[in-house]
């Protein structure tokens, strides 16, 4: 069973629908015990970093998330859910993230011809051996909606990059922790293949 964490800031329905399509039986929940007994956990997210952390704290979820990660449960952050796994964001100065991985979130710098927020399809430069991207061709396109991007402290965790004025760390993986800035649930057959790879991780 896959637990999709509900904290009033997630793109829950489309993630749930994509997992059902792949034959999974997800549950949308914020119940601690249900999350900790799940086979996999997904943290979606849309909106502002500070608001999301406030909601996570309001529902008592940060410790539950850290425990799920520490017990080895495969964990996937999506969009804002990736950013929350890191330490801080320029979007919400002074707000501490979950700090599960080292790094910070920065605003995409303005540049001629670039629209912010970044909304649309971009190709991925996939790191060799990235488990989330097994069978995904180099240069595959996925769908992004964001104004802020990850700068991971440890380059070794970066599973995929994309270019949008700057080099964006589009996906990360370390141990049982996986995350992507883009929306796999909105990325067609490529996104479904990425989610299928996550479902296969034990």
List the helices and strands and how they pair.
Elements: E1 2-5, H1 12-21, E2 27-29, H2 32-37, E3 40-43, H3 49-58, H4 61-70, E4 75-78, H5 80-83, E5 88-89, E6 103-107, E7 118-123, E8 125-126, E9 141-146, E10 148-152, E11 158-163, E12 167-174, E13 177-180, H6 188-200
Parallel strand pairs: 1-2, 1-3, 3-4, 4-13, 5-6
Antiparallel strand pairs: 6-10, 7-9, 8-11, 11-12, 12-13
How would you sum up this structure, described in words?
The protein is an alpha/beta fold. It has a single domain, classed as Class I glutamine amidotransferase (GATase) domain (Rossmann fold, 3-Layer(aba) Sandwich). Strand 11 (158-163) and strand 12 form a beta hairpin. The strands form three sheets. The chain has an eight-stranded mixed β-sheet with strand order 2-1-3-4-13-12-11-8. A three-stranded mixed β-sheet has the order 5-6-10, with no helix packed on it. It has a two-stranded antiparallel sheet with strand order 7-9. The two termini are 12 Å apart. It has six helices and 13 strands. The mean pLDDT is 97. It has helices spanning 12-21, 32-37, 49-58, 61-70, 80-83, 188-200, and strands spanning 2-5, 27-29, 40-43, 75-78, 88-89, 103-107, 118-123, 125-126, 141-146, 148-152, 158-163, 167-174, 177-180.
């Amino acid at each position: 069973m896959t637990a999709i964490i509900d904290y009033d800031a997630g793109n829950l329905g489309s993630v749930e629908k994509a997992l059902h399509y792949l034959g999974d039986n997800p549950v949308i929940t914020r119940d601690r015990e249900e999350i900790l007994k799940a086979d996999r956990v997904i943290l979606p997210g849309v909106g502002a970093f500070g608001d999301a952390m406030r909601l996570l704290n309001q529902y008592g979820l940060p410790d539950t998330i850290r425990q799920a990660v520490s017990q080895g449960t495969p964990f996937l952050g999506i969009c804002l859910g990736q950013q929350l796994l890191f330490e801080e964001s320029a979007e919400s100065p002074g707000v501490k993230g979950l700090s599960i991985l080292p790094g910070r979130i920065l605003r995409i710098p303005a540049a001629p011809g670039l629209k912010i927020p970044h909304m649309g399809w971009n190709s991925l430069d996939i790191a060799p051996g990235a488990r989330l991207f097994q069978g995904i061709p180099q240069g595959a396109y996925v769908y992004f909606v964001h104004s802020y991007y990850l700068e991971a402290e440890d380059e070794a965790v970066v599973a995929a990059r994309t270019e949008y004025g700057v080099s964006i760390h589009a996906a990360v993986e370390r141990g049982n922790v996986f995350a992507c800035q883009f929306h796999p649930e909105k990325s067609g057959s490529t996104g479904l293949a990425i989610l299928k790879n996550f479902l296969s991780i034990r």
